[in-house]
Task: inverse folding
């Protein structure tokens, strides 16, 4: 079986599995990293949202064989380390605003929020309502209103 | 017994707050109610109360009340606790914490937080030191272990306070000996007991000293409302940190040895069954695949990863038996409902009276949560263990035992926090299926439904028609009749048994009125209440067609009933040439609902001038011992309706929401606000976007890109929730209260904005705006182009 190597939450990992297994299952079923959740498996619900080289991606829709040795995959578990703190400002905002209900979608929501803020910064502008409108992550508990507040608060505290 | 009152003050038994059945320290000082409970024998302090409320006194019957005004679903579920003698207990631990296992399921509604708050208040302990866990199935609790009907706080509020108060008293007794002062001179705060000389001793240090070698019965008086420091103040959730760091474990995150990923290849038509897997050898040789077995619902495959289960399912060549609704489509089912509709009572054309007749249809909808149906099962020769999000674990335990041929006591059922429920997890479909598969494979399994399985084979809210006839004479309303006709709702999750076993306990006036009704009709009668003085009011349900997999969905009947009745109320107002708010205020029956209505009208600036294609809508709903009013503004301009977002159903946009909720005594306002906001998102989806289409025996929807639950692009940018204080000591339900008035207000606003009352919901059900995914194979291929969409 082929060896798959990439960097997961700051550390290199190697797994023996076929190329075509999607990254979500490598994370959850083989590496026991369960922060990214399954909600559809077809890049629609966004519950599995994580980061690759600092950008949001959906591991349910990427073959592990397409990852390169140097690719840095970050899941919710590794997010605080990216800022060298116990909690990323976006996670703190989520707690301050008491966002989670069942919590199932929230790791994906937070990873999407961080990426959205970074993206608008790359574009050299402020976060707009229309950016929030385009966050695709589903929350079946309907925490959308508090998510919007929390993204704005988190953005203010992100450097 | 136990929590029954010690009749020290007969007069107090009839005060208004004790007639509500949840007890409470209504009245002041003199003659405050006392409750009985136990200090349980053991080496650390355990205080217990019976999980039952006091029997209610029959209420005074107002003129022509509807049943829920006398006795509603909440009362029934609360009374269901009466015949049980099981205890719930609070343990004081040596580390100074208190622990309590609640016999309910946490599915996102925040009950572990609100329960910790109630305990903290009565114990004088910081909330952070109260550990609330979910109890496993406890058969001795009989049917009293059901999380539904938004009943948790209503039924547990008093018993857990009694247990906590007993614990606190026992700690004080022990401290009196340790510190050498009388109890009356001691003060409790933050988990400490302080003597007049300033010395303190902690609860932890007293935990064993306060323990009793034998179980003894004790009497206790609960804290008064004015002494509460935690209940009623906003509190963040106890599990938020775990949720935002990915540490909150759901069933599929548990590490159970050998429980490998397992999925089921399901039939192309609803409720079909497998005859034969033709290419079994090939499937067994696929990468990662370990086991393949046939069960009644399909072909199960167990593999190293879920991805390999999906690949195997897509390769399976299965011969299927027919399903339960072969050849049927939305319109044939609707025609069946039409045939089953029961007549109105008021004749068609009363002399001189104005009459409104309206007819509405509501499509099938999926109650699936974001976490799909799932369960871990490890079934052995002589025992079984299950891990799943279950709202009725006792029934699950019975069903599983039966399904795998074990005795009930050989099955251990662990209740795991769920990724949402909305009624879906009242049933234990996945747990039973997992147990069957595990038995057949002789291995532990981690069963998860594919998303596509949910709308296609999972439980749906049934299709419903609602007909309303109202007659008016001059400025008065003579009659209001509503007839709902529905595809059968499955109540086999235990609510049915609760009803039969409890109705005997209900006040006789109620028992008589409900006699002879089917379960669902009883529930309908217990929940529906039109809060208006409309003369002769009747609301009835009839059911037909039991071929579907159904269940309740964040409320059972109310959203559809409210949409229909509130739309007709707007039509009546129009006929009387009255403003919708003015009309409602004129006819509203009770002050608490009126207060909610007035609140949203004021805060939402009702009646402000709106530009073309935009409108306000207002609606109320009364249920769960509380009332809700919602005001919305909607934008239906073509430029808004047709706004483009990639792969999105956009449509009309609600731009502003103002909600007012009276939920009685509120334990946690922040949690209630969250429940109301979430309830709004559901109501919005029900009215505008989310439904399942039946075509030729199959439901077309297969994922969130077909089933349009509310998304950020539909969410109003402003949503205000006002929490009313009715000054009562009885908590109401919260989980479902936000949905009906929200769905209705959006419908009313939409009708006013487009100048036409819609008759079918959701309003976009008529068009299918997606290409249905394949039925064979039953699950879509996972894409591989994810790296193209990074951002
Ligand atoms: S599971 Fe990856 S987007 Fe839904
Ligand atoms: S918090 Fe439950 S799905 Fe978002």
Result:
């Amino acid at each position: 079986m082929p060896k798959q190597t990439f960097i997961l939450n700051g550390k290199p990992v190697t797994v023996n599995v076929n190329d075509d297994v999607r990254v979500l299952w490598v994370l959850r079923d083989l590496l026991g990293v369960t922060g990214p959740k399954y909600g559809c498996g077809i890049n629609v619900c966004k519950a599995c949202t994580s980061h690759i080289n600092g950008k949001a991606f959906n591991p349910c829709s990427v073959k592990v064989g397409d990852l390169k040795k140097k690719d840095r995959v970050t899941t919710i578990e590794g997010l605080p380390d990216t800022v060298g703190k116990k909690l990323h400002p976006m996670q703190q905002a989520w707690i301050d605003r008491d966002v989670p209900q069942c919590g199932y979608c929230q790791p994906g929501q937070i990873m999407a929020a961080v990426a959205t803020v970074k993206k608008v910064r790359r574009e050299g502008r402020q976060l707009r309502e229309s950016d929030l409108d385009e966050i695709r992550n589903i929350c079946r508990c309907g925490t959308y209103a508090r998510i919007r507040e929390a993204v704005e608060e988190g953005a203010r505290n992100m450097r | 017994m136990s929590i029954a009152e010690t009749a020290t003050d007969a007069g107090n038994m009839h005060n208004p707050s004790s007639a509500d059945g949840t007890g409470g320290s209504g009245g002041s000082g003199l003659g405050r109610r006392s409750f009985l409970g136990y200090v349980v024998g053991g080496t650390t302090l355990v205080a217990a109360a019976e999980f039952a409320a006091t029997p209610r006194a029959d209420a005074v019957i107002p003129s022509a009340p509807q049943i829920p005004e006398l006795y509603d679903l909440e009362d029934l579920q609360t009374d269901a606790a009466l015949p049980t003698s099981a205890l719930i207990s609070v343990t004081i631990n040596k580390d100074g914490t208190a622990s309590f296992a609640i016999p309910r399921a946490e599915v996102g509604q925040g009950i572990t937080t609100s329960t910790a708050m109630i305990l903290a208040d009565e114990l004088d302990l910081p909330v952070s030191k109260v550990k609330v866990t979910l109890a496993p199935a406890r058969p001795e609790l009989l049917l009293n272990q059901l999380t539904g009907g938004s009943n948790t706080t209503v039924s547990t509020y008093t018993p857990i306070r009694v247990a906590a108060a007993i614990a606190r008293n026992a700690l004080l007794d022990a401290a009196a000996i340790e510190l050498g002062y009388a109890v009356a001179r001691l003060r409790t705060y933050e988990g400490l007991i302080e003597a007049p000389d300033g010395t303190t001793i902690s609860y932890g240090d007293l935990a064993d000293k306060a323990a009793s070698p034998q179980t003894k019965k004790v009497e206790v008086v609960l804290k008064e409302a004015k002494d509460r420091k935690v209940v009623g103040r906003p509190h963040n959730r106890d599990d938020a940190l775990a949720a935002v760091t990915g540490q909150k474990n759901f069933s599929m995150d548990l590490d159970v040895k050998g429980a490998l990923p397992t999925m089921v290849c399901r039939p192309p038509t609803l409720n079909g069954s497998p005859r034969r897997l033709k290419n079994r050898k090939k499937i067994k040789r696929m990468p990662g695949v370990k086991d393949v077995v046939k069960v009644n619902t399909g072909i199960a495959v167990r593999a190293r990863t879920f991805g390999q289960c999906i690949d195997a399912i897509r390769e399976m060549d299965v011969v299927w038996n027919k399903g339960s609704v072969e050849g049927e489509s939305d319109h044939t089912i609707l025609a069946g409902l039409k045939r089953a509709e029961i007549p109105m009572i008021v004749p068609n054309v009363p002399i001189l009276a104005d009459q409104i007749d309206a007819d509405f249809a509501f499509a099938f909808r999926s109650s699936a949560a974001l976490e799909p149906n799932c369960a871990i099962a490890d079934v052995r020769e002589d025992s079984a263990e299950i891990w799943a999000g279950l709202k009725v674990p006792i029934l699950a335990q019975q069903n599983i035992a039966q399904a795998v041929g074990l005795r009930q006591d050989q099955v251990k059922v662990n209740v795991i926090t769920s990724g949402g429920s909305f009624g879906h997890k009242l049933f234990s479909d996945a747990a039973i299926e997992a147990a069957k598969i595990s038995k057949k494979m002789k291995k532990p399994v981690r069963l998860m439904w594919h998303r596509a399985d949910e709308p296609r084979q999972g439980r749906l809210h049934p299709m419903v028609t609602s007909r309303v006839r109202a007659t008016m004479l001059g400025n008065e309303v003579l009659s209001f009749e509503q007839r709902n006709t529905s595809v059968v709702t499955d109540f086999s999750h235990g609510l049915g048994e609760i009803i039969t076993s409890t109705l005997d306990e209900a006040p006789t006036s109620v028992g008589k009125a409900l006699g002879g009704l089917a379960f669902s009709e009883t529930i309908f009668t217990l929940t529906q209440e039109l809060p208006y003085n409309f003369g002769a009011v009747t609301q009835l349900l009839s059911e037909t067609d039991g071929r579907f997999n159904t269940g309740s969905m964040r409320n059972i009947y109310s959203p559809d009933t409210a949409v229909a009745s509130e739309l007709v109320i707007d039509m009546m107002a129009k006929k009387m040439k009255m403003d919708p708010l003015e009309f409602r205020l004129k006819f509203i029956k009770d002050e608490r609902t009126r207060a909610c209505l007035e609140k949203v009208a004021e805060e939402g600036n009702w009646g402000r001038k709106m530009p073309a294609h935009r409108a306000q809508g207002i609606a109320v709903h009364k249920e769960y011992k509380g009332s809700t009013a919602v005001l919305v503004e909607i934008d239906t301009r073509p430029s808004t309706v047709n706004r483009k977002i990639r792969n999105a159903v956009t449509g009309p946009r609600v731009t502003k929401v103002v909600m007012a909720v009276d939920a009685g005594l509120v334990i946690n306002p922040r949690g209630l606000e969250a429940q109301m906001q979430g309830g709004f998102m559901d109501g919005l989806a029900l009215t505008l976007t989310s439904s399942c289409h039946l075509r030729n025996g199959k439901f077309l929807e297969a994922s969130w890109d077909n089933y349009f639950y509310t998304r950020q692009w539909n969410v109003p940018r402003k949503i205000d929730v006002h929490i009313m204080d009715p000054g009562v000591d009885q908590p109401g339900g919260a989980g479902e209260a936000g949905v009906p008035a929200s769905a209705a207000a959006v419908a009313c606003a939409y009708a006013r904005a487009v100048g036409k009352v819609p008759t079918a919901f959701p309003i976009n059900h008529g068009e299918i705006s997606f290409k249905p995914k394949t039925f064979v194979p039953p699950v879509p291929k996972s894409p591989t182009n994810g790296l193209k969409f990074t951002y």
Q: What stands out?
A: The mean pLDDT of chain A is 97. The CA atoms of residues 91 and 110 of chain A lie 7 Å apart. Strands of chain A lie at 3-8, 11-16, 50-52, 55-57, 72-74.
